[in-house]
Protein backbone atom coordinates (compact mmCIF):
# COMPACT_ATOMS: atom_id res chain seq x y z
CA UNK A 1 0.00 0.00 0.00
CA UNK A 2 1.27 3.53 -0.74
CA UNK A 3 2.73 5.27 2.28
CA UNK A 4 2.60 8.77 0.83
CA UNK A 5 -0.57 9.91 -0.90
CA UNK A 6 0.56 13.49 -1.26
CA UNK A 7 2.32 13.64 -4.68
CA UNK A 8 -0.72 12.49 -6.66
CA UNK A 9 -2.83 15.54 -7.62
CA UNK A 10 -6.17 13.82 -7.96
CA UNK A 11 -8.65 14.88 -10.68
CA UNK A 12 -12.11 16.26 -9.82
CA UNK A 13 -11.42 15.34 -6.18
CA UNK A 14 -11.30 17.22 -2.89
CA UNK A 15 -7.65 16.20 -2.45
CA UNK A 16 -7.23 17.16 1.20
CA UNK A 17 -10.50 15.54 2.23
CA UNK A 18 -9.65 12.34 0.32
CA UNK A 19 -6.10 12.08 1.62
CA UNK A 20 -7.30 12.53 5.20
CA UNK A 21 -9.72 9.60 4.74
CA UNK A 22 -8.79 7.70 1.56
CA UNK A 23 -11.12 5.39 -0.31
CA UNK A 24 -8.73 2.99 -2.05
CA UNK A 25 -9.97 0.27 -4.39
CA UNK A 26 -7.62 -2.66 -4.88
CA UNK A 27 -9.60 -5.19 -6.88
CA UNK A 28 -12.76 -5.63 -8.94
CA UNK A 29 -14.80 -8.58 -10.19
CA UNK A 30 -18.19 -8.53 -11.93
CA UNK A 31 -20.50 -6.32 -9.80
CA UNK A 32 -18.08 -5.60 -6.94
CA UNK A 33 -15.00 -3.67 -5.98
CA UNK A 34 -12.65 -4.78 -3.21
CA UNK A 35 -11.40 -2.03 -0.92
CA UNK A 36 -7.93 -1.72 0.62
CA UNK A 37 -9.41 -2.91 3.93
CA UNK A 38 -10.78 -6.03 2.25
CA UNK A 39 -14.46 -5.13 1.96
CA UNK A 40 -16.75 -5.82 -1.02
CA UNK A 41 -18.47 -2.76 -2.48
CA UNK A 42 -21.42 -3.11 -4.84
CA UNK A 43 -20.68 -1.02 -7.92
CA UNK A 44 -23.69 1.25 -8.43
CA UNK A 45 -21.95 3.39 -11.04
CA UNK A 46 -20.15 0.99 -13.42
CA UNK A 47 -16.92 2.62 -12.26
CA UNK A 48 -17.49 6.01 -13.83
CA UNK A 49 -20.30 5.10 -16.25
CA UNK A 50 -17.94 2.84 -18.17
CA UNK A 51 -17.79 -0.76 -16.94
CA UNK A 52 -21.07 -1.74 -18.61
CA UNK A 53 -20.28 -5.48 -18.83
CA UNK A 54 -19.03 -5.75 -15.24
CA UNK A 55 -15.47 -5.91 -13.96
CA UNK A 56 -12.48 -7.98 -15.02
CA UNK A 57 -14.35 -10.03 -17.59
CA UNK A 58 -12.02 -12.88 -18.67
CA UNK A 59 -12.61 -12.47 -22.42
CA UNK A 60 -11.60 -8.81 -22.33
CA UNK A 61 -8.67 -9.37 -19.98
CA UNK A 62 -7.31 -12.15 -22.20
CA UNK A 63 -7.70 -10.11 -25.38
CA UNK A 64 -5.66 -7.27 -23.89
CA UNK A 65 -2.99 -9.62 -22.56
CA UNK A 66 -2.70 -11.37 -25.91
CA UNK A 67 -2.52 -8.10 -27.82
CA UNK A 68 0.21 -6.51 -25.71
CA UNK A 69 2.40 -9.58 -26.11
CA UNK A 70 1.84 -9.64 -29.89
CA UNK A 71 1.75 -6.02 -31.09
CA UNK A 72 2.16 -3.49 -28.31
CA UNK A 73 1.98 -0.33 -30.39
CA UNK A 74 1.68 0.78 -34.00
CA UNK A 75 1.87 4.38 -35.22
CA UNK A 76 -1.52 5.56 -36.47
CA UNK A 77 -0.24 8.26 -38.85
CA UNK A 78 0.46 6.86 -42.33
CA UNK A 79 0.52 3.37 -40.77
CA UNK A 80 -2.14 1.01 -39.51
CA UNK A 81 -2.81 -2.27 -37.75
CA UNK A 82 -5.66 -4.72 -38.37
CA UNK A 83 -7.53 -4.18 -35.09
CA UNK A 84 -8.30 -0.52 -35.77
CA UNK A 85 -9.96 -1.37 -39.10
CA UNK A 86 -11.81 -4.40 -37.73
CA UNK A 87 -13.19 -2.36 -34.87
CA UNK A 88 -14.28 0.53 -37.11
CA UNK A 89 -16.20 -1.92 -39.28
CA UNK A 90 -17.87 -3.51 -36.27
CA UNK A 91 -18.82 -0.12 -34.84
CA UNK A 92 -20.42 1.18 -38.03
CA UNK A 93 -22.32 -2.09 -38.39
CA UNK A 94 -23.73 -1.93 -34.91
CA UNK A 95 -25.08 1.59 -35.43
CA UNK A 96 -28.83 1.42 -36.04
CA UNK A 97 -30.13 2.18 -39.52
CA UNK A 98 -26.77 2.07 -41.30
CA UNK A 99 -26.50 5.86 -41.15
CA UNK A 100 -22.90 6.04 -39.94
CA UNK A 101 -19.99 4.95 -42.05
CA UNK A 102 -16.72 6.17 -40.50
CA UNK A 103 -14.95 6.16 -37.17
CA UNK A 104 -12.27 8.57 -35.93
CA UNK A 105 -10.37 7.40 -32.82
CA UNK A 106 -9.08 9.21 -29.75
CA UNK A 107 -8.36 8.12 -26.20
CA UNK A 108 -11.15 9.57 -24.09
CA UNK A 109 -14.51 11.23 -24.21
CA UNK A 110 -12.80 14.60 -24.08
CA UNK A 111 -10.72 13.81 -27.14
CA UNK A 112 -13.75 12.44 -28.96
CA UNK A 113 -15.53 15.73 -28.33
CA UNK A 114 -12.57 17.87 -29.45
CA UNK A 115 -12.33 15.71 -32.57
CA UNK A 116 -16.05 16.01 -33.35
CA UNK A 117 -16.05 19.80 -32.95
CA UNK A 118 -12.98 20.12 -35.18
CA UNK A 119 -14.45 17.77 -37.80
CA UNK A 120 -17.65 19.84 -37.81
CA UNK A 121 -15.84 23.11 -38.47
CA UNK A 122 -13.49 21.52 -41.01
CA UNK A 123 -16.43 19.84 -42.78
CA UNK A 124 -18.11 23.15 -43.48
CA UNK A 125 -14.84 24.74 -44.52
CA UNK A 126 -13.91 21.99 -46.93
CA UNK A 127 -17.34 22.40 -48.53
CA UNK A 128 -16.76 26.11 -49.00
CA UNK A 129 -18.74 27.33 -45.99
CA UNK A 130 -15.81 28.55 -43.92
CA UNK A 131 -18.00 31.08 -42.13
CA UNK A 132 -19.68 28.29 -40.16
CA UNK A 133 -17.46 28.31 -37.09
CA UNK A 134 -19.83 28.83 -34.16
CA UNK A 135 -20.65 25.97 -31.82
CA UNK A 136 -23.80 25.66 -29.76
CA UNK A 137 -23.82 23.64 -26.54
CA UNK A 138 -26.26 23.55 -23.65
CA UNK A 139 -26.30 24.78 -20.09
CA UNK A 140 -25.35 22.02 -17.66
CA UNK A 141 -23.85 19.98 -20.50
CA UNK A 142 -20.66 18.02 -19.87
CA UNK A 143 -18.39 17.31 -22.80
CA UNK A 144 -15.11 16.56 -21.07
CA UNK A 145 -12.33 18.92 -20.15
CA UNK A 146 -10.62 20.07 -23.35
CA UNK A 147 -11.01 23.74 -24.21
CA UNK A 148 -13.62 22.88 -26.83
CA UNK A 149 -15.49 20.63 -24.44
CA UNK A 150 -15.61 23.13 -21.58
CA UNK A 151 -16.56 25.90 -24.00
CA UNK A 152 -19.62 24.10 -25.30
CA UNK A 153 -20.16 22.54 -21.88
CA UNK A 154 -22.41 24.30 -19.45
CA UNK A 155 -21.16 23.53 -15.96
CA UNK A 156 -19.99 26.79 -14.40
CA UNK A 157 -17.40 25.29 -12.06
CA UNK A 158 -15.68 23.54 -14.97
CA UNK A 159 -15.40 26.79 -16.93
CA UNK A 160 -14.83 29.70 -14.62
CA UNK A 161 -11.12 29.12 -13.82
CA UNK A 162 -10.04 28.72 -17.40
CA UNK A 163 -10.19 32.10 -19.03
CA UNK A 164 -12.17 33.15 -22.04
CA UNK A 165 -12.47 29.68 -23.61
CA UNK A 166 -13.40 29.32 -27.29
CA UNK A 167 -14.94 32.37 -28.94
CA UNK A 168 -18.19 32.08 -30.85
CA UNK A 169 -19.96 29.64 -28.56
CA UNK A 170 -23.55 29.92 -27.39
CA UNK A 171 -25.72 27.72 -25.20
CA UNK A 172 -29.23 26.33 -25.23
CA UNK A 173 -31.05 26.43 -21.90
CA UNK A 174 -30.99 23.21 -19.89
CA UNK A 175 -34.22 21.27 -19.46
CA UNK A 176 -34.25 20.78 -15.68
CA UNK A 177 -37.38 22.05 -13.94
CA UNK A 178 -38.40 20.65 -10.57
CA UNK A 179 -41.77 22.42 -10.47
CA UNK A 180 -42.83 20.80 -13.72
CA UNK A 181 -41.01 17.50 -13.82
CA UNK A 182 -40.09 16.26 -10.34
CA UNK A 183 -40.47 12.50 -9.86
CA UNK A 184 -41.20 11.81 -13.53
CA UNK A 185 -40.68 8.19 -14.57
CA UNK A 186 -38.80 8.19 -17.87
CA UNK A 187 -39.07 11.16 -20.22
CA UNK A 188 -40.90 14.24 -18.92
CA UNK A 189 -43.75 15.73 -20.93
CA UNK A 190 -42.85 19.31 -20.06
CA UNK A 191 -39.94 21.10 -21.70
CA UNK A 192 -40.10 20.21 -25.41
CA UNK A 193 -40.48 23.92 -26.25
CA UNK A 194 -36.98 24.58 -24.85
CA UNK A 195 -35.58 23.14 -28.07
CA UNK A 196 -37.11 26.12 -29.89
CA UNK A 197 -34.52 28.30 -28.19
CA UNK A 198 -32.22 27.02 -30.91
CA UNK A 199 -34.24 29.07 -33.41
CA UNK A 200 -33.67 32.17 -31.30
CA UNK A 201 -29.91 31.54 -31.15
CA UNK A 202 -29.82 30.93 -34.91
CA UNK A 203 -31.69 34.17 -35.54
CA UNK A 204 -29.23 36.02 -33.36
CA UNK A 205 -26.04 34.73 -35.00
CA UNK A 206 -27.39 33.69 -38.41
CA UNK A 207 -27.23 30.08 -39.54
CA UNK A 208 -24.38 30.86 -41.91
CA UNK A 209 -22.08 31.29 -38.89
CA UNK A 210 -23.03 28.09 -37.06
CA UNK A 211 -21.19 24.81 -37.55
CA UNK A 212 -22.75 22.47 -35.02
CA UNK A 213 -24.97 21.87 -32.04
CA UNK A 214 -23.72 19.41 -29.42
CA UNK A 215 -25.80 17.89 -26.63
CA UNK A 216 -25.80 14.81 -24.47
CA UNK A 217 -29.04 12.94 -25.34
CA UNK A 218 -29.35 12.32 -21.58
CA UNK A 219 -27.19 14.73 -19.59
CA UNK A 220 -25.20 12.55 -17.18
CA UNK A 221 -22.45 14.28 -15.28
CA UNK A 222 -24.55 17.28 -14.33
CA UNK A 223 -26.85 14.94 -12.42
CA UNK A 224 -28.98 12.96 -14.88
CA UNK A 225 -31.32 15.18 -16.89
CA UNK A 226 -33.72 13.23 -19.09
CA UNK A 227 -34.77 14.91 -22.36
CA UNK A 228 -38.44 15.89 -22.57
CA UNK A 229 -40.61 13.95 -25.02
CA UNK A 230 -40.01 15.31 -28.54
CA UNK A 231 -37.11 17.57 -27.52
CA UNK A 232 -34.32 15.78 -29.40
CA UNK A 233 -36.57 15.38 -32.45
CA UNK A 234 -37.11 19.15 -32.46
CA UNK A 235 -33.37 19.87 -32.27
CA UNK A 236 -32.89 17.53 -35.23
CA UNK A 237 -35.58 19.27 -37.27
CA UNK A 238 -34.15 22.74 -36.63
CA UNK A 239 -30.58 21.64 -37.44
CA UNK A 240 -31.87 20.09 -40.69
CA UNK A 241 -33.65 23.28 -41.61
CA UNK A 242 -30.47 25.35 -41.29
CA UNK A 243 -27.84 22.78 -42.39
CA UNK A 244 -26.27 22.74 -38.95
CA UNK A 245 -24.56 19.54 -37.86
CA UNK A 246 -26.04 17.86 -34.81
CA UNK A 247 -23.65 16.00 -32.50
CA UNK A 248 -24.87 13.66 -29.80
CA UNK A 249 -22.32 13.09 -27.08
CA UNK A 250 -23.00 9.45 -26.25
CA UNK A 251 -20.00 8.96 -23.99
CA UNK A 252 -22.39 7.87 -21.23
CA UNK A 253 -25.49 6.78 -23.19
CA UNK A 254 -23.59 4.58 -25.66
CA UNK A 255 -23.20 0.81 -25.32
CA UNK A 256 -26.42 -0.19 -23.68
CA UNK A 257 -26.86 2.28 -20.86
CA UNK A 258 -30.41 3.14 -21.89
CA UNK A 259 -31.36 -0.43 -22.77
CA UNK A 260 -30.59 0.09 -26.46
CA UNK A 261 -27.27 0.05 -28.30
CA UNK A 262 -27.08 3.86 -28.33
CA UNK A 263 -29.37 6.74 -27.44
CA UNK A 264 -29.95 7.24 -31.15
CA UNK A 265 -31.64 3.85 -31.23
CA UNK A 266 -33.54 4.49 -28.02
CA UNK A 267 -34.91 7.86 -29.15
CA UNK A 268 -34.96 7.18 -32.90
CA UNK A 269 -33.24 10.49 -33.61
CA UNK A 270 -30.20 10.40 -35.91
CA UNK A 271 -27.56 13.09 -35.44
CA UNK A 272 -24.65 13.75 -37.81
CA UNK A 273 -21.96 12.60 -35.43
CA UNK A 274 -21.86 10.74 -32.19
CA UNK A 275 -19.03 10.71 -29.69
CA UNK A 276 -18.35 7.57 -27.65
CA UNK A 277 -15.80 6.43 -25.06
CA UNK A 278 -16.11 4.69 -21.65
CA UNK A 279 -18.18 1.57 -22.45
CA UNK A 280 -16.43 1.06 -25.78
CA UNK A 281 -13.68 -0.86 -23.93
CA UNK A 282 -15.71 -1.58 -20.81
CA UNK A 283 -13.44 0.94 -19.10
CA UNK A 284 -10.39 -1.30 -19.41
CA UNK A 285 -8.18 0.66 -21.81
CA UNK A 286 -8.70 4.37 -22.57
CA UNK A 287 -10.44 4.91 -25.89
CA UNK A 288 -12.80 7.44 -27.44
CA UNK A 289 -14.22 7.74 -30.95
CA UNK A 290 -16.35 9.88 -33.23
CA UNK A 291 -18.78 8.15 -35.57
CA UNK A 292 -19.69 10.20 -38.59
CA UNK A 293 -22.81 10.00 -40.67
CA UNK A 294 -22.70 9.19 -44.36
CA UNK A 295 -21.44 12.14 -46.37
CA UNK A 296 -19.10 13.70 -43.82
CA UNK A 297 -16.00 11.66 -44.64
CA UNK A 298 -16.91 11.86 -48.33
CA UNK A 299 -16.94 15.66 -48.20
CA UNK A 300 -13.23 15.55 -47.36
CA UNK A 301 -12.40 12.78 -49.83
CA UNK A 302 -14.15 14.53 -52.70
CA UNK A 303 -12.46 17.90 -52.21
CA UNK A 304 -8.97 17.34 -50.83
CA UNK A 305 -6.45 16.32 -53.52
CA UNK A 306 -5.58 12.64 -53.55
CA UNK A 307 -2.33 11.76 -51.78
CA UNK A 308 -2.89 14.67 -49.39
CA UNK A 309 -3.79 14.33 -45.74
CA UNK A 310 -7.51 15.09 -45.61
CA UNK A 311 -7.77 15.96 -41.92
CA UNK A 312 -4.86 17.41 -39.97
CA UNK A 313 -5.89 15.93 -36.66
CA UNK A 314 -5.13 12.80 -34.62
CA UNK A 315 -3.35 11.43 -31.58
CA UNK A 316 -0.25 9.27 -31.02
CA UNK A 317 -2.60 6.73 -29.47
CA UNK A 318 -5.52 6.97 -31.93
CA UNK A 319 -6.77 3.40 -32.38
CA UNK A 320 -4.16 2.00 -30.00
CA UNK A 321 -3.78 -1.78 -30.45
CA UNK A 322 -4.62 -2.52 -26.80
CA UNK A 323 -7.71 -0.33 -26.91
CA UNK A 324 -8.88 -1.94 -30.16
CA UNK A 325 -8.35 -5.44 -28.77
CA UNK A 326 -10.23 -4.48 -25.61
CA UNK A 327 -13.06 -2.93 -27.61
CA UNK A 328 -13.42 -5.90 -29.98
CA UNK A 329 -13.63 -8.28 -27.01
CA UNK A 330 -16.02 -5.93 -25.20
CA UNK A 331 -18.40 -5.81 -28.17
CA UNK A 332 -18.38 -9.61 -28.24
CA UNK A 333 -19.29 -9.78 -24.57
CA UNK A 334 -22.11 -7.28 -25.08
CA UNK A 335 -23.43 -9.36 -27.94
CA UNK A 336 -22.96 -12.84 -26.45
CA UNK A 337 -24.63 -11.88 -23.21
CA UNK A 338 -27.24 -9.66 -24.90
CA UNK A 339 -26.49 -7.04 -22.30
CA UNK A 340 -28.33 -4.17 -24.03
CA UNK A 341 -31.49 -6.25 -24.17
CA UNK A 342 -30.93 -7.25 -20.58
CA UNK A 343 -30.69 -3.59 -19.56
CA UNK A 344 -33.94 -2.93 -21.38
CA UNK A 345 -35.66 -5.82 -19.60
CA UNK A 346 -34.41 -4.63 -16.22
CA UNK A 347 -35.31 -0.97 -16.77
CA UNK A 348 -38.87 -1.31 -15.41
CA UNK A 349 -37.71 -3.08 -12.25
CA UNK A 350 -34.94 -0.51 -11.82
CA UNK A 351 -37.41 2.35 -12.23
CA UNK A 352 -39.79 1.08 -9.54
CA UNK A 353 -36.95 0.20 -7.17
CA UNK A 354 -35.39 3.66 -7.46
CA UNK A 355 -38.71 5.49 -7.17
CA UNK A 356 -39.38 3.60 -3.92
CA UNK A 357 -36.92 6.08 -2.37
CA UNK A 358 -39.50 8.83 -2.92
CA UNK A 359 -40.54 10.22 0.47
CA UNK A 360 -37.19 9.71 2.21
CA UNK A 361 -35.65 12.76 3.90
CA UNK A 362 -34.32 15.52 1.63
CA UNK A 363 -35.26 13.72 -1.62
CA UNK A 364 -36.68 16.42 -3.92
CA UNK A 365 -36.56 14.54 -7.23
CA UNK A 366 -36.00 11.08 -8.67
CA UNK A 367 -35.51 10.62 -12.41
CA UNK A 368 -34.59 7.57 -14.48
CA UNK A 369 -34.19 6.09 -17.94
CA UNK A 370 -32.78 2.71 -18.95
CA UNK A 371 -30.30 1.73 -16.22
CA UNK A 372 -29.63 5.31 -15.12
CA UNK A 373 -31.10 7.18 -12.21
CA UNK A 374 -30.65 10.57 -10.58
CA UNK A 375 -31.76 11.30 -7.04
CA UNK A 376 -31.70 14.96 -6.16
CA UNK A 377 -31.38 16.00 -2.54
CA UNK A 378 -32.19 19.41 -1.11
CA UNK A 379 -28.88 21.12 -0.34
CA UNK A 380 -28.00 22.05 3.23
CA UNK A 381 -28.47 25.73 3.76
CA UNK A 382 -25.22 27.53 2.88
CA UNK A 383 -23.35 24.23 2.33
CA UNK A 384 -24.25 22.92 -1.11
CA UNK A 385 -22.76 19.53 -1.94
CA UNK A 386 -22.01 18.45 1.63
CA UNK A 387 -25.13 16.31 1.98
CA UNK A 388 -24.34 14.52 -1.28
CA UNK A 389 -20.73 13.94 -0.27
CA UNK A 390 -21.79 12.55 3.07
CA UNK A 391 -24.10 10.10 1.29
CA UNK A 392 -21.23 8.97 -0.92
CA UNK A 393 -18.97 8.41 2.10
CA UNK A 394 -21.62 6.56 4.10
CA UNK A 395 -22.62 4.38 1.14
CA UNK A 396 -18.97 3.51 0.64
CA UNK A 397 -18.64 2.56 4.30
CA UNK A 398 -21.81 0.44 4.05
CA UNK A 399 -20.80 -1.34 0.84
CA UNK A 400 -22.11 0.65 -2.14
CA UNK A 401 -20.40 2.88 -4.69
CA UNK A 402 -22.52 5.82 -5.79
CA UNK A 403 -21.60 8.98 -7.67
CA UNK A 404 -22.57 12.49 -6.66
CA UNK A 405 -22.62 15.82 -8.45
CA UNK A 406 -23.22 18.35 -5.73
CA UNK A 407 -26.32 17.04 -3.97
CA UNK A 408 -27.48 14.86 -6.86
CA UNK A 409 -26.79 11.13 -6.63
CA UNK A 410 -26.24 9.43 -9.98
CA UNK A 411 -26.59 5.68 -10.40
CA UNK A 412 -25.61 3.61 -13.44
CA UNK A 413 -24.74 0.02 -12.49
CA UNK A 414 -23.10 -2.50 -14.80
CA UNK A 415 -25.74 -3.97 -17.11
CA UNK A 416 -25.12 -7.44 -15.62
CA UNK A 417 -26.72 -6.37 -12.30
CA UNK A 418 -29.20 -8.87 -10.83
CA UNK A 419 -32.57 -7.92 -9.37
CA UNK A 420 -31.49 -8.83 -5.84
CA UNK A 421 -28.48 -6.56 -6.28
CA UNK A 422 -30.82 -3.74 -7.32
CA UNK A 423 -32.76 -4.42 -4.11
CA UNK A 424 -29.54 -4.36 -2.12
CA UNK A 425 -28.45 -1.10 -3.75
CA UNK A 426 -31.78 0.55 -2.91
CA UNK A 427 -31.72 -0.81 0.63
CA UNK A 428 -28.23 0.53 1.37
CA UNK A 429 -28.98 3.89 -0.22
CA UNK A 430 -32.35 4.14 1.53
CA UNK A 431 -30.71 3.39 4.88
CA UNK A 432 -28.10 6.08 4.29
CA UNK A 433 -30.71 8.64 3.22
CA UNK A 434 -32.62 8.01 6.46
CA UNK A 435 -29.47 8.68 8.50
CA UNK A 436 -27.99 11.68 6.72
CA UNK A 437 -29.18 14.95 8.26
C1 LIG B 1 -21.09 13.09 -22.06
C2 LIG B 1 -19.62 13.08 -21.77
N1 LIG B 1 -18.77 13.57 -22.67
C3 LIG B 1 -17.44 13.56 -22.47
C4 LIG B 1 -16.92 13.06 -21.30
C5 LIG B 1 -15.46 13.09 -21.08
O1 LIG B 1 -14.91 11.83 -21.09
P1 LIG B 1 -13.43 11.59 -20.54
O2 LIG B 1 -13.47 11.79 -19.06
O3 LIG B 1 -13.13 10.18 -20.97
O4 LIG B 1 -12.54 12.58 -21.22
C6 LIG B 1 -17.77 12.53 -20.33
C7 LIG B 1 -17.25 11.99 -19.08
O5 LIG B 1 -17.97 11.72 -18.13
C8 LIG B 1 -19.16 12.55 -20.56
O6 LIG B 1 -20.03 12.10 -19.66
Task: Walk me through what this model shows.
The protein is α/β, with parallel strands linked by helices and about 425 residues long. The chain folds into 2 domains: about 15-55 and about 335-435, Aspartate Aminotransferase, domain 1 (Alpha-Beta Complex), CATH 3.90.1150.10; about 60-335, Aspartate Aminotransferase, domain 2, CATH 3.40.640.10. Helices cover about 40% and strands about 15% of the residues. It is built from 16 helices and 15 strands. The strands form 3 sheets. The protein has a 7-stranded mixed sheet, sandwiched between helices. It has a 4-stranded mixed sheet with strand order 1-2-3-13. Strands 11-12-15-14 form a 4-stranded antiparallel sheet, with helices on one face. Strand 11 and strand 12 (about 370-375) form a beta hairpin. The structure holds pyridoxal-5'-phosphate. Pyridoxal-5'-phosphate (PLP) binds near residues 109, 110, 144, 249 and 277.
Backbone structural class: alpha/beta
- Distinct ligands: pyridoxal-5'-phosphate
CATH topology (level 3) name of the largest domain? Aspartate Aminotransferase, domain 2
Strand content: 15-25%
How many DSSP H or I helices?
A: 16
- What would CATH call the architecture of the largest domain? 3-Layer(aba) Sandwich
Cα-atom Rg, whole angstroms?
A: 21 Å
According to DSSP, the number of beta strands is: 15
What's the CATH C level of the largest domain? Answer: Alpha Beta
Estimate percent helicity.
Answer: 25-40%
| Largest β sheet strand count, sense and barrel closure | 7 strands, mixed
Gross geometry: globular
Query: How many discrete domains?
Result: 2
* Assigned CATH superfamily of the largest domain: Type I PLP-dependent aspartate aminotransferase-like (Major domain)
> Strands of the biggest beta sheet: in what spatial order?
4-10-9-8-7-5-6
